[in-house]
Amino acid sequence: xxxxxxxxxxxxxxxxxxxxxxxxxxxxxxxxxxxxxxxxxxxxxxxxxxxxxxxxxxxxxxxxxxxxxxxxxxxxxxxxxxxxxxxxxxxxxxxxxxxxxxxxxxxxxxxxxxxxxxxxxxxxxxxxxxxxxxxxxxxxxxxxxxxxxxxxxxxxxxxxxxxxxxxxxxxxxxxxxxxxxxxxxxxxxxxxxxxxxxxxxxxxxxxxxxxxxxxxxxxxxxxxxxxxxxxxxxxxxxxxxxxxxxxxxxxxxxxxxxxxxxxxxxxxxxxxxxxxxxxxxxxxxx
Length: 286
Description:
Layout: E1 5-12, H1 18-25, E2 32-38, H2 44-54, E3 62-65, H3 71-82, E4 89-92, E5 97-100, H4 105-115, E6 119-128, H5 143-146, E7 149-151, H6 154-158, E8 163-169, E9 173-174, E10 181-182, E11 205-209, H7 216-224, H8 230-245, E12 260-261, H9 273-283
Parallel strand pairs: 1-2, 1-4, 2-3, 6-11
Antiparallel strand pairs: 4-8, 5-11, 6-7, 6-8, 7-12, 9-10
Helix pairs in contact: 7-8
C-alpha cells in the first residue's frame, strides 16, 4: 500500500537528528517538506541541512532566515506548508521526533475518511542514553540503541506540554509546539474529546523524543537566555535547572519517570503506554 500522507519538519539550530529523522520516515510518506530555519544567511544550519538532504535525494522546501527560537514563526512555517495541500494528510514532526503508530498510517487515514475524523494525536516518550546519560549522537549510530531508555521525564522536570498533534488534514492549523489544533473560531482541540479527533483508544501516537542527546545541554542554556518567547524560556530554565540538580544524569529507577528499555522501534514494546496515555491526557484535561 502506497503512503497517503506527506511529512513536514522545521530544522533549525541543530542538525544532529535530521539524518535519523529522515531515515525513519522516508519510506512511509509520499513527499517530504523540510524547512531549514536559519538565523542569518551564513548560518551553518543551511549548508549542513542541504548536505543531509542530498543523501536522501531531497532539497530544502524553504530556507527561512528568522529570529532565533521564535516558536510563533516556526508554527507559521508548519501551517503555511501543510496548507499547500489542504485536502491531503500530513505528518507534522519536529526533527528530533520519531513517531510510532499502533497500526499503519494508511489504515488510520482510511478510518478517518470513513468516519469524518480529521486529526490524530499522541504524546511524548522521552529518550535518554545508557545509565540515564546524555549520549553523543552521530550520523552513523543507531539512535534507538544509543538512547535505549524511554520514559516520561520532561513534564515532571519542567511542566512542558506533553500532548502532540501527529497527523492531520492540511486545512487545519496547529498551535505552537503542535500540541493542539487551532480552529478558525478561536477554539483549540484541548478538551476531553473532540468529534474530529481519531479516538485515542484506537491509537495514541508515541512521539519518541530524541531531543535529549549531549548537544541539548547547550541549547537549553541558549533558549533559557532568549527573549523571543518568555514562556518557552522559563520552561527551558526549569528543565536546565532540574538537569543540573541531577548532575546531568537521570535516575532510571525513578518511578515517576516510568522508564523502560526500548531499543527497537516497536509500538508495543513500551508496556506502560496505556497508563502513560491516560496520564498525558489528564495533564491537559483531555
